[in-house]
Amino acid sequence: MSTVMTGFSQTKSGHPACEISLPDSSGNMIRLSDLKGRVVLVDFWASWCGPCRNNNPHLVRLYNKYRNQGLQILGVSIDDNREEWRKAVQQDKLEWIQVNDSKGWDGSAAMTYEVNAIPASFLIDKDGILRKTGLMGRSLESEIRSLLKK
User: Is there a contact between 31 and 20 (Cβ–Cβ < 8 Å)?
Assistant: First the structure.
């Protein structure tokens, strides 16, 4: 997989999060920048990814616990089969915003965020600044709580 810019990481903590603009299941374009003002967890995943699907119940719990306090999750699927993606969203009861980049690993979002394995997570603060990457479990929840308090 190639990177977008050689020698420079676009996904460095402390820098503004790169834009994501992808269609949801209805074809409406969703932009990450529209979520500014909330703590956003960008979660790259796919319906065929066992570790992703195993992580979804934890994300459902986090979302239900913190959404009324300002947490939003943006699920970015790299599925090339939109029906399988939609089915997985329904099966796993993923109620947060879901978008799909059917170009998979070569899609704009995955390339921009240098995603080469999934699940991949990027935690963004209320000001649109990327704060942490790759967090899971207790460390993810702790960081979410911390950002929501700011």
Answer: yes
Alpha helices (H) along 41-136: 50-66, 82-91, 108-112
DSSP state of 29: E
The CB-side HSE value for 27 (13 A sphere, CA atoms) comes to 0
pLDDT tens column, 28-61: 999 999 999 999 999 999 999 999 999 999 999 9
Q: What angle do CA 79, 32, 8 make, to 5 degrees?
A: 85
DSSP β-ladder status, 29-31 and 39-45 = unpaired
Q: Could you say which DSSP state residue 134 is in?
A: S
Alpha carbons 112 and 92: distance in angstroms, whole number: 27
Class of domain 33-149: alpha beta
Model-wide pTM > 0.70: yes
Sequence ranges of the domains in the chain: 33-149
Q: Which burial class, exposed, middle or buried, applies to 88 when counting CB atoms under 10 A from its CB (0-12, 13-18, 19+)? A: buried
N residues, the chain: 150
